[in-house]
Amino acid sequence: MNRINSQFAFYYLNYKPIKESQLSVRISSSSNNNKSYLNLLKDFNNALSLNSFGDSLVRQGMKAISFYILQEELIGQKGALEFIAKTVEELEKGIAENSYNLEYLTDVINIYTRIAKYEEYFIEYTEALINKCLRLNPQYDRLYFMLADILVLKKDFNKAVEVASNIAARGPDNDITYFELALIAIRSSNDEVASNALEKVKAIRMAAYDYTVADGDTVFSVGELRRMAQVYLESNKLHEAIHLYKLVLTYLQDDGPAAARLHFKMANIYHIIGDSENTIKEIKKAAELDPDNYAEEAERIIYSLNK
């Protein structure tokens, strides 16, 4: 546990988010005090010191918030890294108490797999946890996809696709496993496997619900579209990412912070590919929807583009 805490503490003191730095994307770190994760961290620390609700419930809450931070890529916001570091510390205590609790360990792995994208030490550590869980239950398909995620981070792309393909083959009519295979294949730059897997998902769902897909429609949920867009972004396939983010915004019934983050993300992508007109358009929309977080950033970006 000390090794993990010292590694992560070193990382957040020298924060350079890997995915965004690879694409030269800047995550806005501005937030008002009400949205600071330092305030939340203080509340959770107080709860842990009082032990009024039980440590396990407190850890569960911290885990949920950390997952949200990582999933929504809010790691640049004030106090987010400190909050995640404290969550890791508490989850490690929980591991000691739940060493044979597969449900608890799998939830921890889910968090650690996401952290591993930012902190290299977590790659090997998480792989060891996955292998431990597979010894407890070698038939748990979800663990194999988590293993494939770790193999991608290790750049063992062929093995990652092989592991995911084997699990998908276990259930030829399971659309979810083929979707997960597609994500692994995209991240591994295996376009053929990714395309075939996505077509398989479409075929399964269209057969199951007996409908056809019209132009502009999709068999994928908003959550799945967002996951695909993020994977394409991480894989530097920017035009594919833009296309999917546009689809998400079409279906997203939210004109608040969630939509603002997507517009901000699209502004960054457009900036990378040199499209100043759409960069300004998207950053203005982000600032309009969430001025507290993006107004200042929008002003800076527009000023720099108009110089």
Provide tags for this entry.
mainly alpha, 307 residues
Give an account of the 3D structure:
There is one protein chain. By secondary structure, this protein is an all-alpha fold. The protein has a domain of 138 residues. It is built from 16 helices and no strands. Helix 3 runs parallel beside helix 5, helix 4 runs parallel beside helix 6 and helix 15 packs antiparallel against helix 16. The longest helix is centred in the middle third of the chain and has 19 residues. The protein is globular and about 60 Å long. The chain starts with a helix and ends with a helix. The N terminus is likely disordered.
Summarize the structure.
The protein is mainly alpha-helical.
- Percentage of residues assigned to helices: over 70%
- Main beta sheet: strand number and arrangement? none
Straight-line N-to-C gap: 50 Å
* Shape category: globular
Number of strands: 0
Helix-and-strand structural type: mainly alpha
Poorly predicted runs are 1-34
Topology:
Blueprint: H1 2-13, H2 18-22, H3 37-50, H4 55-71, H5 80-97, H6 102-115, H7 121-136, H8 141-153, H9 157-170, H10 175-187, H11 191-209, H12 222-234, H13 238-251, H14 257-272, H15 276-289, H16 291-306
Helix pairs in contact: 1-5, 3-5, 4-5, 4-6, 5-6, 6-7, 6-8, 7-8, 8-9, 8-10, 9-10, 10-11, 10-12, 12-13, 13-14, 14-15, 15-16
